[in-house]
Design brief:
It is found in: Cell outer membrane; Membrane. Part of the outer membrane protein assembly complex, which is involved in assembly and insertion of beta-barrel proteins into the outer membrane. Pfam families: Omp85, POTRA. Its main location: membrane. A hairpin with a 2-residue loop joins strand 25 and strand 26. Among the domains are: 4-67, Ubiquitin-like (UB roll); 70-80 and 91-144, membrane protein fhac (Ubiquitin-like (UB roll), Roll); 150-235, Ubiquitin-like (UB roll) (Roll); 241-316, membrane protein fhac (Ubiquitin-like (UB roll)); 323-392, membrane protein fhac (Ubiquitin-like (UB roll), Roll), CATH 3.10.20; 404-451, no CATH class; 763-807, no CATH class. The chain contains 13 helices and 44 strands.
Length: 870
C-alpha cells in the first residue's frame, strides 16, 4: 500500500502538478508495473529529463524528478540560402517553451526537408545546446547547406522509336550542363519527376502510341549527395491511326454530320490525343454558342488492336439552355467596377454565349490593368439553367515610367522620358506626359483620354505639344553648326465611337503654329536678322550657307486640320497580342483655315499568329501619301513643306538612324591629296551638311517571330525575337542644288579642273556695299564703312577723309551638293531584339543590320531603351 508520496527536485512545478501526471495516490495498492507506468506517464508529459521513484520497499514513495530546461533562445547559424524567417515558420521550438530532445530531432528533420525542397540533399543540421543558469538553455542549429543537388543524368530504357535526347526535350527536368546554366529545372524535384512521366505520356499519345506507359521511374542519389541519376523504363507499344469519327448529340439543334466534318480529325491520320482534346473543346464551344454552358462531351474510344485503329464517337449529353444569373467581379481594389463591367459583352439575364464570354475576356485583358492569363470562370447557378460568371482579377501597376537612351553619329546622345498612367483614379482614364531631348530635337507633350464620356461609349481626349527641332551639321573641325530650326506649338482634340464590336470611327481636329527659321550665321547682311523670312529689310537667305532647299522652307505658318480614322480591331490583347488582326485607314485634311493645304492618307495593318510551341509570328504593313492642295511654289520647291512630310527611321525602321531613310541633301567639301589633286571628302562625319528632307510617300513592312525560351530564361523575363523589315520613303521634287557657281581653274598641261573659293561683296543693312579702311590710315585703320573714299561712322552717312578703301568681301570654300535617296526601291534590314523584365524595369535591346540601303541612308546597328512601372 502507498503510505505517503513526496516529490523532490521540482523547481518550476508544484508537487501537486507533478503528481497529477501519474495515477499514484495515497492508500492505493501498487505493484512494479504501476510504478513503471507512472514513470512513463511523467516522461510522456515532456516536462522532465529524468524520473526516479524510490521507497517502494516501505510504501513511502519519493518521486525524484529533474525538469527539462526552458528554451531561452533559438539560434540558426550557417544558413545563407534560406532566410531565418522562413526556417522559423517551420520549426516548433521557440523561446519560453520546454526543451526536449524529441522536439529538437523533429525540428532538425523539418529544416532538412526545407533544404531538400530546394534541391540541397547534402544539407546537414547539427543541433547544439548551451546550458544557462536557472535551468535555461540556448538551442543552436548549425546548418551546413551543401551544394544544390543537380540531375547529372537522365536515362531512358525501352525506347526504340524516339531517341533519348528527343524524349528529354519533352521533360521539364533538364540535365545539368553548360547550356542549362540559367535554368532552375536542373535540380531534383520529386513532384517534377511525376510531371515528367505525364509529359512523356502526352508526347507519345500525340504521336499515335496509345498503349504507351512508364513502367518505372527511379531517382538515385549519388554517394556524395551532390547529384541525382534518374532512370525511366518505358513501353512504347504499337502506333495507331484514327478510325471512324462520329458525333452523337442528344441536343436536337446540332447537325451531327456537320459537327464531325469540322473537327479537324480525318480517318487514316495518325492518332493524336491533342487533336481529341481540341475536338472536345471545339464541341463544347459550339454548344456554348447555342447557349448550353455546361454541356458534357464524352469521347467513346473503339480500339482495334488487329488493325491498329482508334475509332472515336463524341457523345454530347443533353443539356438545358443556360442564362446568365449573376456576374461577380473580385479583386479590383483600385479599378472601379463599371470600368470592368462595360467591357463584358453579356448582361445578367442574357442567354449564355461562349463567344461573348471569350470576347469579354479579351477586352478586359486588353485594358492592361490586370495580370496576364485572366479568365472568366463559369459556375453552376441556383438552378441547372443558370450560370454565374466570375471575374477573379489581380491588379497590376498601370503607371509607366519609360526612359530610353541611344547614340547617333549625327545626334550623339539621345534621351527620352515619358510617364503615363493608364488607369487614372481607377476610372480607366489615361494621363501621359513625355519629354525628348537630344542635340537634334527637343519636345514636351501632354495628353489626356476619357474612354467613356458621361458613361457613354464615346471616347474623347486631347493633346498639347511643343516640339523644337534643330537641324545641324558638323564643320571640318568637328564643331556643331545649326542650319535651320523648327518650333511647333499646338493642340489636338480627339474623339471615337464604336460602329460594331470590331469597327470604330475616330475623328480629330488639330491646330499648330510652325516657326521655321535659319541660324543667323546663314545670313550675310543684317546681324539683327532673326532668321525668319519677312522680318528684315534684307529678307535674304544665303543658299551658299544654308542650301536652297532650306531657304525655301523658312517662314511662319498656321496649320488647321481635321481628320478621321476607320479602325478594325480583333486582337485578343492590345498589349501583347498573340492572335487577331488590326487595320487602320486614316485621312487628315489641312486647309480649314490656316496657311497650309494638303490631304494626308495613311493605312496600317497587322496580324498575329500563334503558331504553337510558344512561337508568336506577326506581320505589319503601313504606308502613306500626302497630296498638296496648293499652287506651285516655284522651280525646285516641293508643294508639301518640309515640316509636313513623312520621315522614316528609328524607332519604326530598326537598322536605320532617326530620319535615316529617304531623300536627303549632302554637302561635301574638297580636299587636296599628296599629289596636289582636288578630291571630295567622303567621310560621312566630315560632311558639311547631311539633311533629311522627308518624303510625300512611304511604305514599311515587318515580319517578326517571337521565340520562346526555356524555363530559366522565362523566369528572368526574357522574350527574344527576330525580324526582317522593308520600306522606303520617296516622292519629293528635286531641290535646286548649290555648288555650280564656284569659279574653276584649269591646268593647261594636265587639264585638271580645280574649284576655287567664291569671293562675294559684303553689304550693309541698307543695301550699300561695305569697304574697309586701309591699315595705313592714322584715324580709322581697319574699320568698316560704306564710303569708297574716306570714312563715315554711320551707314550711308557723309564721307570725310581721303583714304582709298578696299571692298569688304567674304570667301566661301568650294563644295558640292548631291541629292539622293528619293527612290521607292526597298531598304531591307534584319535583326534580333530581346525584351527583358530586368530588376530595374523593362529593357529592350535591338541589334539590326541594314542589308539593303541607299548610299545616302544613315544606318544604325544598336538601340536600347529601359523603363519601369509604378
Amino acid at each position: 500500500m502507498i503510505k505517503s508520496i513526496r516529490v523532490e527536485g521540482a523547481q518550476r512545478l508544484e508537487p501537486e502538478t507533478v503528481l497529477s501526471y501519474t495515477k499514484l495516490r495515497t492508500g492505493q495498492a501498487f505493484t512494479n508495473e504501476t510504478l513503471d507506468q507512472a514513470i512513463k506517464d511523467l516522461y510522456a508529459s515532456e516536462l522532465f529529463a529524468d524520473v526516479i521513484i524510490a521507497g517502494a520497499d516501505t510504501g513511502d514513495l519519493v518521486l525524484r524528478v529533474r525538469e527539462n530546461p526552458v528554451i531561452n533562445r533559438v539560434i540558426f547559424e550557417g544558413n545563407k540560402r534560406l532566410k531565418e524567417d522562413k526556417i522559423k515558420k517551420e520549426v516548433k521550438l521557440a523561446p519560453r517553451q520546454i526543451f526536449t530532445r524529441t522536439a529538437v530531432r523533429q525540428d532538425v528533420a523539418r529544416i532538412v526537408e526545407l533544404y531538400r525542397r530546394q534541391g540541397r540533399f547534402a544539407a546537414v543540421v547539427e543541433p547544439k545546446m548551451v546550458s544557462l543558469d536557472q535551468n535555461r538553455v540556448d538551442v543552436i542549429f548549425e546548418v551546413s547547406e551543401g551544394p544544390k543537388s543537380k540531375v547529372r543524368q537522365i536515362n531512358i530504357l525501352g525506347n526504340e522509336v524516339y531517341s533519348d535526347s528527343k524524349l528529354r526535350e519533352q521533360m521539364a527536368t533538364k540535365q545539368a550542363r553548360l547550356t542549362t546554366l540559367l535554368s532552375s529545372n536542373t535540380s531534383y524535384d520529386q513532384d517534377r519527376l511525376a510531371y515528367d512521366q505525364q509529359k512523356l505520356r502526352q508526347f507519345y499519345l500525340t504521336e499515335g502510341y496509345a498503349d504507351f506507359k512508364v513502367t518505372s521511374a527511379v531517382a538515385e542519389l549519388t554517394p556524395d549527395k551532390k547529384d541525382f541519376i534518374i532512370t525511366y523504363v518505358v513501353e512504347e507499344g504499337k502506333r495507331y491511326k484514327f478510325g471512324d469519327i462520329s458525333v452523337d448529340s442528344d441536343i436536337r439543334d446540332f447537325d451531327n454530320k456537320k459537327l464531325a466534318a469540322n473537327l479537324g480529325i480525318n480517318k487514316g491520320d495518325w492518332y493524336d490525343a491533342k487533336k481529341v482534346e481540341t475536338a472536345i473543346d471545339s464541341l463544347s464551344e459550339a454548344a456554348g454558342l447555342f447557349g448550353y454552358a455546361f454541356t458534357e462531351v464524352n469521347p467513346d474510344y473503339a480500339r482495334d488492336k488487329d488493325t491498329l485503329t482508334m475509332g472515336i464517337n463524341f457523345h454530347i449529353a443533353e443539356a438545358k439552355r443556360t442564362y446568365v444569373e449573376r456576374i461577380d467581379i473580385n479583386g479590383n481594389t483600385q479599378t472601379q467596377d463599371k470600368v470592368i463591367r462595360r467591357e463584358i459583352r453579356l448582361s445578367e439575364g442574357d442567354a449564355f454565349n461562349s463567344f461573348q464570354v471569350k470576347r469579354s475576356q479579351d477586352r478586359i485583358n486588353s485594358l492592361g490593368y490586370f495580370q496576364d492569363k485572366f479568365e472568366i470562370k463559369q459556375t453552376q447557378g441556383s438552378s441547372p439553367d443558370r450560370v454565374v460568371l466570375t471575374a477573379n482579377l489581380e491588379e497590376k501597376s498601370t503607371g509607366e515610367l519609360s526612359l530610353s537612351a541611344g547614340y547617333s553619329s549625327l545626334e550623339r546622345f539621345i534621351i527620352q522620358a515619358s510617364i503615363r498612367q493608364r488607369n487614372f483614379r481607377g476610372k480607366g482614364q489615361e494621363l501621359r506626359a513625355s519629354v525628348n531631348y537630344s542635340t537634334y530635337s527637343k519636345s514636351v507633350e501632354l495628353g489626356f483620354t476619357e474612354p467613356y464620356l458621361f458613361n457613354k461609349n464615346i471616347a474623347i481626349g486631347g493633346d498639347i505639344f511643343r516640339r523644337d527641332y534643330n537641324a545641324f551639321n558638323y564643320t571640318v573641325d568637328n564643331q556643331r553648326q545649326t542650319t535651320y530650326t523648327q518650333v511647333s506649338t499646338g493642340f489636338q482634340i480627339r474623339s471615337g465611337v464604336p460602329l460594331t464590336e470590331y469597327w470604330q470611327l475616330a475623328g480629330r481636329y488639330g491646330l499648330s503654329y510652325d516657326q521655321v527659321g535659319l541660324d543667323k550665321s546663314t545670313y550675310y547682311t543684317d546681324s539683327n536678322f532673326d532668321g525668319v523670312r519677312g522680318n528684315s529689310s534684307a529678307d535674304a537667305c544665303d543658299p551658299l550657307q544654308a542650301g536652297r532647299y532650306l531657304c525655301d522652307a523658312i517662314g511662319n505658318r498656321w496649320t488647321s486640320s481635321v481628320g478621321y480614322s476607320l479602325i478594325y480591331d480583333s486582337l485578343n490583347s492590345r498589349l501583347r497580342p498573340t492572335a487577331g488582326h488590326r487595320f487602320i485607314f486614316s485621312q487628315d485634311i489641312a486647309g480649314l483655315g490656316g496657311d497650309v493645304k494638303y490631304i494626308r492618307t495613311k493605312f496600317e495593318g497587322s496580324k498575329f499568329f500563334n503558331i504553337g510551341s510558344g512561337f508568336i509570328a506577326s506581320a505589319n504593313l503601313e504606308g502613306g501619301y500626302i497630296k498638296s492642295l496648293e499652287k506651285s511654289r516655284g522651280v525646285g520647291i516641293d508643294n508639301v513643306r518640309i515640316t509636313d512630310r513623312f520621315y522614316l527611321g528609328e524607332p519604326d525602321f530598326r537598322g536605320f538612324d532617326i530620319r535615316g531613310v529617304g531623300p536627303r541633301v549632302q554637302r561635301q567639301s574638297y580636299t587636296t591629296d599628296a599629289a596636289g589633286n582636288q578630291t571630295l571628302v567622303t567621310d560621312r562625319t566630315q560632311l558639311l551638311a547631311d539633311d533629311a528632307l522627308g518624303g510625300r510617300a512611304y511604305y514599311l513592312g515587318k515580319l517578326e517571330l517571337e521565340i520562346p525560351l526555356g524555363a530559366g530564361a522565362r523566369e528572368l523575363g526574357l522574350r527574344p525575337s527576330i525580324y526582317v523589315q522593308a520600306g522606303a520613303l520617296f516622292g519629293i521634287t528635286s531641290p535646286v542644288l548649290q555648288g555650280s557657281q564656284f569659279p574653276t581653274q584649269i591646268d593647261p598641261v594636265t587639264g585638271r579642273v580645280t574649284y576655287l573659293p567664291l569671293i562675294t561683296q559684303n553689304f550693309a543693312s541698307n543695301g550699300n556695299p561695305l569697304y574697309v579702311v586701309p591699315t595705313t590710315d592714322a584715324l580709322n585703320a581697319g574699320s568698316a564703312t560704306t564710303c569708297a573714299v574716306g570714312y563715315s561712322a554711320t551707314i550711308g552717312g557723309a564721307c570725310t577723309g581721303t583714304s582709298v578703301n578696299t571692298a569688304s568681301t567674304s570667301s566661301t570654300a568650294p563644295f558640292k551638293e548631291t541629292f539622293g535617296g528619293d527612290s521607292p526601291r526597298p531598304r531591307i534590314s534584319v535583326g534580333a531584339g530581346v525584351n527583358w523584365n530586368s530588376p530595374f524595369g523593362p529593357l529592350r535591346i535591338d541589334l539590326a543590320y541594314a542589308l539593303l540601303k541607299d548610299k545616302s541612308d544613315d544606318s544604325k546597328l544598336v538601340t536600347f531603351n529601359v523603363g519601369t512601372q509604378f
